[in-house]
Amino acid sequence: MVDDIDRRIIVATQAGLPLTAKPYLQLATQIGISHDELKKRMQAMQDSGVIRRIGAVPNHYKLGYKANGMTVWDVPDEKVQELGQKIGSLAFVSHCYHRPRHLPEWAYNLFAMVHAHNREEALQQVNVIADILGDNDRGHDVLFSTRILKKTGMRIAS
Amino acid sequence: MDKLDKDIINRLQDGFPISDRPYADVAVELGTDETTLLQRLDIMLQEKTLTRFGPMYHAEKLGGAFSLVAMKIPQHDFDRVVDIVNSFAEVAHNYQRDHEFNMWFVLATETPEQVDGINNKITQQTGYPLYNMPKLQEFYIKLKFFV
Fold this sequence. Notes:
The complex is a heterodimer.
Chain A: H1 4-13, H2 23-31, H3 35-48, E1 51-58, E2 67-73, H4 80-88, E3 93-98, E4 110-116, H5 119-133, E5 140-151
Chain B: H1 3-12, H2 22-30, H3 34-46, E1 50-57, E2 65-71, H4 78-86, E3 91-97, E4 103-109, H5 113-126, E5 131-133, E6 137-141
Antiparallel strand pairs in B: 2-4, 2-5, 3-4
């Protein structure tokens, strides 16, 4: 788990990495630890998976991905792991999760987010997934987002 | 957006070095220089071509919890419910979707126990049931968009 100094690193970087030649030195100075310790701690957090990745998050709307669909699938529970790994590895699927059903209103247990330039392309992606699932596809639907109501992201209290 | 911008976006979705001069290291790979890379990143963040640049943290590994929650809201009551749901700081994202289940939000809390408490409050204040869909397994996360 993370300690107090790690938490201070997280709070200092959750809005982003400084855009200066030596970003880790700037953070170290801000937090009051050495440059080497800061780099070592960031590396340790990355190795343990606390940091998923250091990198850029593109605004997919601005990049032309205007059809962002949440595809949902009813697949046999005993196969969800095997099928989820297959679907999650497709290039156009960004996230893939197993989630609980809420019967009778919600029968879907596998969720895969797809990203396309338009709805037609997104529906072709849905067909690719359906082909891979074959008989294991006992029903599916695709929910397109029509409005972002809120987007602030995770925030840790400082 | 020119070829260098696209190269930067594609390269920086694959990770970033933890080194003394990380921007200089990446600039060499991309055939540019540190100053240009920093300028391009600054512009793309200001223009919101990039929503973020930096470490992405794994909420569950910090002791926090995420859950996806769905609601079915009649159209005439939608705006009132949006205001209530969005008033909770723990609601990180909220999307309207074209489906009978028309509101989908992500709750991000510091402990898993807080999820139920907030869901109960939202049900009490809105009068509608919540369909809590925490992830049971995560298969792959890449979030890489080639440009």
